[in-house]
Design goal:
The longest helix has 17 residues. It is globular and about 65 Å long. The chain is an alpha/beta fold. Helix content is 33%, strand content 20%. The structure holds flavin-adenine dinucleotide. Flavin-adenine dinucleotide binds next to helix 2, strand 16 and helix 17.
Length: 483
C-alpha cells in the first residue's frame, strides 16, 4: 500500500505550503534527555513500534525487556525469501517508504540501509479495458466510468467534495460543519453530493484500496481532509523500499537489543497500578509473570482487545481499543520464469486494476532476471473473498487474473504464495483506518495511562505505515525518558 493521508501530514504540508517551504523532519523527537525514574520497562510486541521504542530506551540506559509472540521481529514487516528461486524475495507485508517518511528514513540511514525508488504506475486495466498510462495522460483518455474526467485516474471524486475542502482555511481551526462530516461515510457524502455510482466505485479502487476497506466504511471527513493536502496519494506518488528487503530494518533494531528480546512469549494479561505493572506471558508452555516500573503496549488492538487488562484503562481508551477499525488485506507473490510484463505489447509493469488482485506489479526490480516476482496488493472485499478460499484457489484466481493482464502467463507461471493478514494469529487485520466517529481515536490511543504507555501505528498521526510505527515508538520512549 501507499501511505494514507494523515492529520499531521495535512497540518505540516498545509503549513509548509502556505509558507512556501519544503517539509523538513521534526528533529525535536530525537536527542531527548530527561530524568526518568523508570528502572525497568517491559515492551510488548517487537514490530517496528516496539523495537524502535526499546532501542531508544536502551540507548538512554534504561533496563528493557521486549516480549514478542512470534519467533521473529518486524510484525507486519514480512519479507519472504524461502519459497522463491534465484534469491528472489517478496514483501508480503509493508512495502513502500515514501519520500516524506522521516522516521523510517532516519533509521535506515543510521543502520546503513539504502532505499530503492519504486516504479510508477504505467498501466491501467479496468472493466476489461487496458490503458497505457502515458497515452492515457497525453490523449486524456476517459475511463469507462460515468462522470470521470479524461486523463485522470486518482481524485475523480474531488469535484463533488470541492466545496467542503474549500471551507477549510486554517487546518488548526476546521469549521464545525466540516467536522460533522466525521458522522457519515465517504460513500454517503459522495451520494449526497450527487456523485454517480461509478465515481464511488472508482473510489473503491483508488483510495479505499489503500485504506483496505470500502467507501461505506471510511469517514467522509478523512476523504475531505485528504483533498486539502495537494500531494495526496496519486498515480504520481514517489515511493521506495529498502534495498534487499524491508525486514532488514526491524532486524537491525532487534540485533541492537538482542539480549533483552524474548521471542515466542505471547502476553496474556497486563496488571497495572500507580506503582508499576505486572505482565503475564507464556514461555515454553508455562505462564510466567514479570514486573516493571512501566510498560509500553506495542501490539495491535485486534490482539490487545482479547488480552486481559486489570484494571481496565479509562472508558474512552477502552472504547477506542474495542472499536478501532482495521481492514482486510492480502498479498500474493507470483514467480514467473520470464518477465513478460517488460516485453513488447505488455499492459505495463505496475498496473492499477479493478480485478480481485487490485494492484499488480513487478516486484523484483532490484534483481537480475530472467525470473521475476509479480506481486499483488489486494484489500477490502476482494481480500475478504480471496481470504475465504484455500491457498490453491487463491493462486488459481491470481493466475487467471494475471493471464487477463499478460496472456502469456500460463506458459511462464512457476509458483506463488499468499499472505492474508486477517488470518495471521498475531495480527488478525490489516492496519487502522478512520471510520465515521473515529477522527480523534489516535490522540486517545496514544495517551499514557499511569505507568502504561502505548505505541504502534494505531497511535501515530502517520498511522498505517512503518514510519508511523517508528514515530510512535520514539514518542513512547520520549515519554518515559522525560520522566
Ligand atoms: C499487507 C500490508 C501492506 C502494508 N504496506 C505498507 C507500506 O507499503 N508502507 C508502509 O509504511 N506500511 C505498510 N503497511 C503497514 C505497516 O506494516 C504497519 O503500519 C507497521 O509495520 C506496524 O508496526 P507496529 O509495530 O505498529 O505493529 P506490528 O508490526 O503488527 O507489530 C506488533 C507486534 O506485536 C506482536 N504481538 C501481537 N500480540 C502479541 C502478544 N499477545 N504478546 C506479545 N507480542 C504480541 C506481533 O507479533 C507483532 O510482532 C502494510 C501492512 C500490511 C499488512
Amino acid at each position: 500500500m501507499s501511505k494514507i493521508i494523515t492529520r499531521r501530514d495535512f497540518l505540516r504540508a498545509s503549513t509548509a505550503a502556505a509558507a512556501g517551504m519544503v517539509i523538513t523532519p521534526a528533529r525535536s523527537l530525537w536527542n531527548v534527555t530527561g530524568n526518568s525514574s523508570a528502572e525497568k520497562v517491559i515492551i510488548i510486541g517487537a514490530g517496528l513500534g516496539g523495537v524502535s521504542c526499546a532501542y531508544e530506551l536502551q540507548n538512554a540506559g534504561i533496563d528493557i525487556t521486549v516480549l514478542e509472540a512470534r519467533s521473529r521481529p518486524g510484525g507486519r514487516v514480512r519479507t519472504c525469501r524461502d519459497p522463491f528461486a534465484d534469491n528472489l524475495y517478496a514483501e508480503m507485508g509493508a512495502e513502500y517508504v515514501d519520500s516524506s517518511d522521516e522516521y523510517a528514513r532516519k533509521y535506515c540511514k543510521e543502520f546503513g540501509l539504502d532505499i530503492l525508488p519504486a516504479k510508477l504506475y504505467d498501466g491501467i486495466y479496468v472493466r476489461g479495458k487496458k490503458y497505457d498510462m502515458a497515452d492515457f495522460k497525453t490523449f486524456k483518455q476517459q475511463l469507462p466510468y460515468d462522470g470521470t474526467v479524461g486523463g485522470k485516474l486518482f481524485g475523480q471524486e474531488f469535484e463533488y467534495v470541492r466545496h467542503w475542502v474549500e471551507k477549510i482555511k486554517d487546518p488548526n481551526d476546521i469549521p464545525s460543519d466540516v467536522m460533522k462530516l466525521d458522522r457519515m461515510s465517504a460513500a454517503q457524502l459522495l451520494r449526497k453530493e450527487g456523485a454517480p455510482k461509478d465515481i464511488i466505485e472508482l473510489y473503491t479502487y483508488t483510495n479505499a484500496t489503500e485504506s483496505t476497506c470500502t467507501p461505506d466504511q471510511m469517514s467522509a471527513l478523512n476523504m475531505v481532509f485528504g483533498h486539502f493536502y495537494a500531494s495526496a496519494f496519486s498515480e504520481n506518488t514517489m515511493e521506495g523500499r529498502i534495498f534487499g528487503g524491508n525486514d532488514q530494518l526491524p532486524k537491525r533494531f532487534a540485533k541492537e537489543i538482542a539480549s533483552n528480546l524474548k521471542y515466542n512469549c505471547p502476553v496474556k494479561k497486563i496488571s497495572h497500578n500507580k506503582k508499576g505493572v505486572e505482565v503475564s506471558f507464556e514461555e515454553s508452555g508455562k505462564l510466567t509473570a514479570m514486573s516493571a516500573d512501566r510498560c509500553v503496549i506495542a501490539m495491535p488492538l485486534t490482539i490487545l482487545r482479547k488480552t486481559k487488562i486489570t484494571p481496565y484503562f479509562s472508558d474512552e481508551k477502552m472504547h477506542c481499543i474495542r472499536k478501532q477499525s482495521y481492514g482486510e488485506v492480502m498479498k500474493i507473490a507470483m514467480q514467473f520464469k520470464r518477465r513478460i510484463w517488460d516485453e513488447q505489447g505488455s499492459v505495463g509493469q505496475r498496473v492499477f486494476t479493478d480485478t480481485p488482485l487490485r494492484r499488480v506489479y513487478h516486484f523484483s526490480i532490484d534483481q537480475p532476471g530472467p525470473r521475476g516476482i509479480l506481486l499483488s496488493f489486494t484489500s477490502g472485499s476482494s481480500a475478504a473473498k480471496l481470504g475465504n478460499m484455500s491457498e490453491q484457489q487463491r493462486l488459481r484466481v491470481a493466475r487467471e487474473t494475471a493471464t487477463e493482464l499478460w496472456p502469456e502467463t500460463p506458459y511462464v507461471w512457476e509458483s506463488g504464495i499468499s499472505k492474508y493478514w486477517n488470518e495471521d494469529p498475531w495480527m488478525q487485520g490489516s492496519y487502522t483506518y478512520v471510520s465515521p466517529g473515529q477522527w480523534d481515536f489516535i490522540d486517545i490511543l496514544a495517551q499514557p495511562e499511569e505507568k502504561v504507555h502505548f505505541a504502534g501505528e494505531h497511535t501515530s498521526e502517520f498511522h498505517s505505515s512503518m514510519n508511523g510505527a517508528i514515530e510512535s515508538g520514539v514518542r513512547a520512549s520520549k515519554e518515559i525518558i522525560k520522566g
